[in-house]
Specification:
Largest sheet: 5 strands, parallel
Number of helices: 6
Oligomer: single chain
Distance between the termini: 29 Å
Radius of gyration: 15 Å
Order of helices and strands: HEHEHEHEHEH
Structural class: alpha/beta
Strand content: 15-25%
Number of strands: 5
Length: 144
């Protein structure tokens, strides 16, 4: 395997924190069609481990109603990590978006989507956010 291929592969992962197997499978299939590899974490500790070992994923999809993590605490931790703070986060949940929640998550997430959702639209959005994030990162690196 050449270095370029192995270096690029980790940057195209998307970490998904959602407990529903059907949603996991649907997202995995639709993200794969856009060149993104889904990776799953069962709880907050596993998510943090996946985020901090090796190259970080290119994006995160998070259900704020996940029973094995506090979405607020997890996002607060994620955005406090210099190596991880630029990772785009998409919230995907059954929970209604209220003004307080919108204010709380607005600075930490790129999009807030309600379930049920159109899988292709979620995959398109995540692929676009990942591409934008990668471009911004390359632009910053080129300046220095």
């Amino acid at each position: 395997m050449n270095r370029a291929a192995s270096k690029e592969e980790p940057a195209r992962r998307v970490l998904i924190l959602d407990e529903e197997p059907f949603i996991q499978d649907t997202l995995k299939l639709n993200l794969a069609g856009r060149g993104l590899r889904a990776e799953f974490a069962e709880n907050e500790a596993e998510a943090k481990s996946l985020l901090t070992r090796g190259s970080p994923p290119a994006g995160v999809i998070l259900d704020v109603l996940h029973s094995r993590l506090s979405a607020y605490r997890f996002l607060q931790w994620l955005k406090s990590q210099p190596a991880l703070e630029a990772i785009p986060v998409v919230i995907l949940t059954f929970k209604e978006k209220d003004p307080e929640m919108a204010f709380t998550y607005n600075v930490w997430v790129k999009a807030y989507l309600s379930k049920p959702f159109v899988p292709q639209e979620v995959a398109d959005l995540v692929a676009r956010l990942v591409t934008e994030s990668e471009r911004a990162s390359r632009s910053v690196e080129e300046r220095f």
